[in-house]
Write a structure and sequence with these properties.
Radius of gyration: 21 Å
Strand content: under 5%
Number of strands: 0
Mean pLDDT: 85
Oligomer: single chain
Order of helices and strands: H
Distance between the termini: 71 Å
Structural class: mainly alpha
């Protein structure tokens, strides 16, 4: 069985990296979304 051990370890690492990348993308998009909402609300306030 030792031969299959490194394989599963690699798969696990890839999955963790993929999950980490997805979380970062979500974090970035959420931050961008909040900033966009903030900017648009500031523009609306200044137009009054």
């Amino acid at each position: 069985m030792p031969a299959s051990s490194p394989q599963s370890l690699t798969v696990g690492t890839d999955a963790i990296l993929a999950l980490d990348g997805t979380c970062r993308l979500l974090d970035i998009s959420m931050t961008g979304f909040v900033e966009m909402k903030y900017i648009t609300s500031m523009i609306e306030l200044s137009e009054r």
